[in-house]
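Memo to structure team: turn this sequence into structure tokens by end of day. - J.P.
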Amino acid sequence: MVRAAVLPAVGAALEITEIDLPAPGPGQVRVRLAAAGVCHSDLSLSDGTLRQPVPAVLGHEGAGTVTAVGEGVHEVTPGDRVVLNWAPACADCHFCGLAEPWLCTDAAAGAGTPYATLRRDGSPLYPALGTAVFAEETVVRANAVLPLPDGVPLAEAALLGCAVLTGFGAVHHSARVRPGESVAVFGAGGVGLATLQAARIAGARTIVAVDVSPEKEKLARAAGATEFLLASKDTARTVRELTGGHGADVAIECAGRAAAIRTAWSSTRRGGRTTVVGIGGRDQQVAFSALELFHFGRSLSGCVYGNSDPAKDLPAVAAHVRAGRFDLSGMVTARTGLDGIAEAFSAMLAGRGGRTLVIFPG
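Reply from structure team:
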């Protein structure tokens, strides 16, 4: 029996209740959570922007300690510290064969299979994005846990499971930022703050952060922004002024909003790269003219989970954390228990703060 935040139906309020977890079966691992990050994707799952069978236990960004393993599991053992991987690659599908594990067709398979039951009536529960980390413990596939390298605090390591790998990968894999380039980052939430840090690590010269909230300036500058702009109708023009009149070499959109994507595109220099990281709804339509696509010669790309291979990228990011180049704690602006997740959702909707960490009893 464990406590968990359950989404009973799409659009409903979360219920903090008790659930029953089975022992891990063949190829499965049980993890006691130390912390979970509250990501905008959790909000998107709750309101139906992203599809998820319900009732479900939300949460996909987490870290904890292995308590038990099922038959055939040799990668981890009880007592190991791990980070949850919400998009584990199968290594067998078409995309894995192309060395693009972030597009794996099997990655989300766990989300559609019940994994636990509600204690009060025995009804089945689904694990959001296959991980269900808004609970004191969870049971996942063995390939959904990644060993945490030494020297990284376990609670803050939760951020590695989504925000950090996404932001780091957006810079290093999708946009491929080079030393001396200028970068504009749209949205300074959890993913945006990770993106700013990654741009600084990549050696970007001018780093412009754009957000709708003035309170994000201090967070953004601490993460590496050399300039901060409040989003307005003049944002693209101002970005061009700050980058020699040409526009940013790279613009990375982290909000998932059509207007922000369009502004990021317009802020990019001729021949530059625009990368879309934010997850928007189907109603978020972005328009481009055929002439501008030709004239500006920019590239526009989507980015899934930072186009990362977590098994390779997590140790690389952990090395930056240990060396003091990447600050996980600086991304955290609130710590709460399960009861505070609804307030964290409200803060995200209002554009307040960076990442909220749900801390579980030790």
